[in-house]
Amino acid sequence: MRSIIIHSAAKRRRRSNVKTKMTKAERNWVLYDVGNSEFVLLVSTIMPIYFNYLAGNAGLSSVDYLAYWGYATSAATIIVALLGPVFGTLADTKGLKKPIFTVTMLIGGIGCLALGFARQWMVFLIIYIIAKTGFSGSLIFYDSMLGDVTTEDRMDNVSSQGYAWGYIGSCVPFVVCLGIVLGAGKIGISMELAMMISFAIVAVWWIGATIPLLKIYKQKHYVERKPRAIRNSQQIAGLHVVAAEPAAGTEPALDVGHIEVIPQFADDVFVKMQGHDAVLGIKDAARWPSPADRNPPCRSVPALRLPSACYGSC
């Protein structure tokens, strides 16, 4: 009897392991979170401090550079809020989700790389707005991919894995970038070159982590193209869930993209708060890094990202 009980318990454990083991598509979906989360970490920590460095070189006061950084972050958030309903409609349309996701991801990744070449604070802010918009736009399509890469009963688990591994994985390139920036003087390179290398590392990490997902992703849930679909999406302003009429041979789905604008807007607000916090932490420093201010007293605010699994499949 005891052996039967042990055997039954072992079978239950094996069944549990099968349920929790991620498929290749699920792992590749999670991997994109690992790639793009480093950009979030960079925006929340090193980037606003480097902007302070550029603004200080141009003679901007602490009040001015803090205000301009806030304007840029707000501009990116507003742009995504306005484009959210349109992106949601495009994410549901047959054959458009993957290519537009690729475009927005490349805008963010290439924009991140271009930030390293900016030496004037206004140019830096313009590129930042473009990169941030591309990043946030890609998340609308990325979150809507969840219903295509997994099953409904596994969405919560896979989504949680994405956020967990995203935070953990982003620490790897961040530690490398932080070491390069803080140790720029010791290794004999300028701050500008150190930041250029850091932006390049983040861009390569981000784009590289996207390639496996692009190779295997196939859109399963979609609606056929309809006339005035984008105009209708603008009219509803993306503030409620609408039922998507399923195409022949596909399962009914919810229009995730239309409500994605709300959590994405909240996510941007928290990132904006973090960026302001980093700038405020060094507002009294004339230039950074100076011999007297190698370690500016930046207060740290943990990032908050809202899970996408509760939105349904698209």
Structure description:
The chain is mostly helical. Helices cover 69% and strands 1% of the residues. It contains eleven helices and two strands; from the N terminus they run ααααααααααββα. The chain has helices spanning 2-20, 24-44, 46-57, 62-92, 97-115, 121-144, 146-149, 155-182, 191-216, 229-236, 256-280, and strands spanning 243-244, 253-254. The protein has a two-stranded antiparallel sheet with strand order 1-2. α4 packs parallel to α6 and α5 runs antiparallel to α6.
Briefly say what this structure is:
This protein is mainly alpha-helical. Helix content is 69%, strand content 1%.
Distance between the termini: 48 Å
- Quaternary organisation: single chain
Give the overall form.
globular
Helix content: 55-70%
Order of helices and strands: HHHHHHHHHHEEH
Index terms:
mainly alpha; 69% helix; disordered N terminus; 314 residues
Write the layout of secondary structure elements.
Elements: H1 2-20, H2 24-44, H3 46-57, H4 62-92, H5 97-115, H6 121-144, H7 146-149, H8 155-182, H9 191-216, H10 229-236, E1 243-244, E2 253-254, H11 256-280
Antiparallel strand pairs: 1-2
